[in-house]
Queue: 2 jobs
Job 1
Amino acid sequence: MQYIIYDLEFTVSRNARYSSEIIDIGAVKVMQGDDGLYVADTFHSFVRPSNRPVLSTDTVQFTGITQRDIDAAPLFPEAVKQFIAWLGTDSTYYLCAWGPDDRQKLVSHCRTHHVDLHWIHNTNDIQKQISRLSGSNGKYRQLSLSQALELCNIDFDGQQHRALDDALNTAQVFMHHFDRITLTHNASDDEESRGSKLVYSTPEEEQEQYSPFGNLANLFKDR
């Protein structure tokens, strides 16, 4: 079984007429070895946005991605084609991200660019899983990636809001908590099926209760 920990970075837009576009894809392939989990491979590609190819100042400041990086990058269909090729022919993998936004944006982009969704399956929200483990009595607060690393006594390695660096750090948290998290099988185009089939569970299942401030926290989260 392969565990694909991926991260996406998007354009930052203050104009409601323009939706954000993926400009950075990073992923880590985690596998099980004789001595436990290990990072087997990594993937990275910048993505040239098709609607607004010139990056805003906000985007550059937030991500550190430059116009030169983007100008030399492939458009989304080619970048995601490279990503799918990197995943390989073995379809027995989980796609894990920090939070729900990356999956939603990935599916949206694939639909917009007429990319088949068959490969987007077994998606899991690691932020939700780790935040849940940090709580008690079924109550928890949503953790940022930096907070989750701190609880694991792991320093952030690299630059925040860069896709590969965020994916690598998420993988560290994932491997640290692997024996306690829940992973599920689900389909790419079935929102209701996500989380419906339990395949790996914590020893003690807690009744999940959502914080009333969860959605607000999403707006300001440190991914």
Job 2
Amino acid sequence: MTSTTCHAYTLEHDKYLLSQRVADHIPPVDQIIRILPIQTLFTNDSIESFNMVEKVIQLKCQCNQYPWGKQGSNSLAATLCAKTPGTDFSIDENTPYAEMWMGTYPELPSYILESGEDLQDVLDRNADELIGKNTINKFNHTKIPYLPKVLSIAKALPLQLHPNKELASQLHQRNPDQFTDPNHKPEIALALGDFEAFCGFKPLKDIERLMKLAPLQPFLPSVKKPSFDDQTLKHVVKSMLTASDEAIKKTNDALLELPKEQFGEDSYIPELIPRLSEQYDKTDNGTVVALITMNYLKLKKGDSIYIPADGIHAYLSGDIIECMARSNNVLNTGFCPRADRDSVDMFTSCLTFTPHSPDDCMLPPKASEHSKNGKTQVYAPPLSEFSLLATELKDGEEETIKAIGGPSMSIVTSGEGSFKADGKEHKLSEGYIFFVAHGVDMEFKATKALQIYTAYVE
């Protein structure tokens, strides 16, 4: 071996020994993965996908029980609630089911179907991704700013109004147990079939004509004004609400004795007195107020009414989609036991005595700019908290709802199909409810005639 060969051998041997020493100090690969920061193992893109938030969330909702709700499986609210896959809700045929709520209001919140987690908790953790910065900045919170419901109505709801923001804030500070938030509650009611409601005050000339009937004369001011104006209407309503049980019963009995022709266009009045008296009592003040001073509406599927804050109303029968600003504040003064009624002075002091024709109560739909195939209409009340989409598809038809700037909530009221959103396909069936994050396209396809309602904000 030459000196050159010997030198090369020694050098290679030293390299081998060095590599062995280094290898002895290198932990196994699985240990490296455990100890290295995750940023050194994945690219920024892969980390983002690893932490990706689901933009479409199927929900489990709840149904409440009020005496005015429809009984057992006759209640659409209960039927839809029971059809949610995996729900623990079951229908008792002897129980009246009134409302199914969808949203994050704490009294009856929605839950994630897959995990059972409260939807609000998920929104709080992922507010930017799900609610969106624009909506958060607009309302200064991470809650859904609207509250959709399905109502199933067997008899008249309480004669009521929802206080405006100023009064709601005062009432909430004064009595947070009864008035659980400081917000107003303007709302819309969209008929899913035949629907009856009392909504707003009739035109003054119509009320004045009815007040000429002898049984109603005691409710007029003792000093007659030259014309029947808003202040006269306020006096009449307050007189009716404060009248004794005996006075109300006497008035109803006397009205029933009048010839039907004397009621003119309001011939429904003697027809509804027995019905309302059976539901509540002949002594209930709400009967006289609603029948004499308020618009009586008979709506069909697809018709909608808008109830502003401070607007007097009472729903009478039917199944509806109701959507409102996020609140549960209400003042009741009729169609309920006296013990459940709020102060008449408070009620009348904040009531808006602005007469309207029945047509003024209506909220007609328009073509939605979010609709790609023209199968969706929008009901857009004059407020910032929400609008409501109605999508109707025949067998085999498709519709795309283009990305909405804020969060939305959809419910299937009839039919079957599927929808694609955020790269995934989801089954649709009656009673299925989904939360969809802002900025997500929704592609619907019907396999059986499909009806979907979507509340949203942007």
